[in-house]
Amino acid sequence: MVFSRRTATRAAIWLSVPLTVLATAIGVGTTLTSAGTVQAASVAIPLPARKPPVPASAANYGIKKKAPTAKQLFGTVKTGAPIAARAVGFYAKGCLAGAKALAVDGPGWQVMRLSRNRNWGHPKLVSLVERLARETTDAKEWPGLLVGDISQPRGGPMVSGHTSHQIGLDADVWLTPMPDRTLTKREREDMSAVSMLAADRVSVNRKVWGEGQEKLIKRAASYPEVERVLVHPALKKALCESPGADPSWLRKVRPVFGHFYHFHIRMRCPANSTSCQAQHAVGEDDGCGKELDQWLKRVAPKPPAPPAQAKKPPAKPAPPRLPKPEMTLADLPDECSTVLKAGGHTPPTEYQKVVDRSKNAAPPKDAAPATTTSLTNNR
Ligand SMILES: [Zn+2]
Prior knowledge:
The protein is an alpha+beta fold. The chain is about 25% helix and about 10% strand. The protein has 10 helices and 11 strands. The strands form 4 sheets. The chain has a 4-stranded mixed sheet with strand order 8-11-9-10. Strands 4-5-7 form a 3-stranded mixed sheet, covered by helices on one side. A two-stranded antiparallel ribbon has the order 1-2. α7 links the parallel β9 and β10 (about 255). The chain binds zinc ion. Zinc ion (ZN) binds near residues 162 and 172. This is Peptidase U6.
């Protein structure tokens, strides 16, 4: 087939192709008159090669590839950022540089759920946990710490379990006493923590809760570097009942949802972490009065709802809620990008599912959706 004069003219009319474009397409041997018609082309010009078929990928339809979320970026890095130690951002929105891993075994502690690789913290927090283990066991107050989650190697949001724990200044310690032997790796995955709650869920079960837990929490709260200790309201109530001679430590013990299998130590921003965003200081009140009563009401089991009336029209179904967009690297402080890539780490570029398969990976049943706001305001 040849590209004749007629074909070219017809093409120009049908396709309304601008003449300059048409001229380019026709190529050598064709000229255009001032009237815009195509002059005779004496040379037969082959058709341009057919364009390759367009692959049906998302990019061709203007759909952006899903970028990895902050959870995926920080949940897949296996080692700490080899730069100066600092907590970056807020407890519930930040990352951690120069983290240290708490040894999985030490004098007076054992780390649980090793598969999670969350025994990394700011070096000052790691020292604090070691100190708590040493001092409580030396004083025979507690048989040893079973340490739960601290942070990921470079902090950041996690795929399961927590809103905070992002900047290496939070540590969970089980309220179950440490056995007097070294647990196997398997046991550290399979063993369950014991709930401290009584059946009424507003008081402690005295069969499992006792002086040991009280002394352990009191000692943790008494360290000046510790800004808060988070426990379930029922545990706070038990602590309020035995404050000891100097009750000043009690104001640091803050009631929260969950936290009846473990308690949570939160350290204040270390002095050299200039981009660490501090939480407001706890008040002078011991929190054992009205505030605790309100919390106990919130966690008390709700009375069963009255049977629905027969003639009542069916409630209009609520419109489906859109899922909250996941935190991305752009939501975290700028410095977290440096922390993520430090030491030549290449983070994944595509969205990939990261799953925590360890036991009890989901948040506890009565855990509230902890938000940055709730963390800053009332805890
Ligand atoms: Zn915690």
